[in-house]
Design goal:
220 residues, Protein Transport Mog1p, Chain A, alpha+beta
Length: 220
């Protein structure tokens, strides 16, 4: 596995209304969340023999010929995971969300605004297996790179996938889309501000890269 650092942007959140957890003083009965059919919430996870990398909050299936790369921030926290193939990548990020309210529509609009400012020509795509998607281009090392964003709203979580390269075209993305459907989310019970990343973990059988391991020893 390869590791990269990315500095996590900090922000102050003070409004209780922005927490995804139900406040302890609220007593009204809430509806049960809808059943997830892939990606799966842990309560709906199928009993299958698919091998998955256990990143704590995310269990990601490992396909033949794919490389799993983890982005690690300055606090040695895993903030995203990327599956790489010779013709493209799929980056996964998990974020806190309200229990019974999706955020993909709002996130999609904000992404489109940001991409428009970067000359990314964002367009909504309908009819996909995961609902409304967003296609665009981003600056790459060899010019503009096609990308496609997929958003999945789950109970108290939001999973975002960015497919880049050939998989940005649905005609060349079947393998990645099947892997996305097999992802299992283990959200946990910790309250988090809505849209904050849900912490991931390094697999227990993987050692930290040398630069992070040295830093960890200094901190200890």
């Amino acid at each position: 596995m390869a590791f990269r650092r990315r500095q996590k942007r900090s922000r102050e959140v003070t409004e209780l209304s922005k927490l995804d957890a139900t406040p302890p003083w609220e007593t009204r009965i809430r509806d049960e969340p809808d059943t997830t059919t892939g990606p799966y919430d842990e309560r709906d996870a199928p009993e299958d023999d698919i091998p998955r990398a256990d990143l704590g909050s995310l269990r990601i299936p490992i396909g033949t010929g794919l490389d799993l790369q983890l982005e690690v921030n300055e606090n040695k926290q895993v903030v995203s995971a990327t599956l790489s193939a010779p013709d493209g990548t799929m980056q996964l990020g998990l974020f806190a969300a309200p229990r019974n309210e999706g955020i993909w529509e709002d996130v999609r609009g904000e992404l489109a605004t940001s991409l428009r400012e970067q000359r990314g020509n964002p367009k909504e795509r309908h009819g996909g297996a995961f609902g409304v998607e967003l296609t665009a281009t981003i600056a790459g090392p060899n010019g503009r790179l096609p990308v496609r964003f997929i958003g999945v709203d789950g109970p108290r979580w939001f999973l975002r996938a960015m497919l880049a390269g050939a998989p940005a075209d649905p005609a060349h993305a079947e393998g990645f889309e099947q892997l996305l459907k097999q992802v299992v989310v283990v959200r946990g019970t910790d309250p988090l501000p809505v849209r904050d990343p849900v912490p991931l973990e390094l697999p227990k059988d993987i050692e930290l890269p040398e630069e992070l391991r040295d830093q960890s020893e200094e901190d200890g």
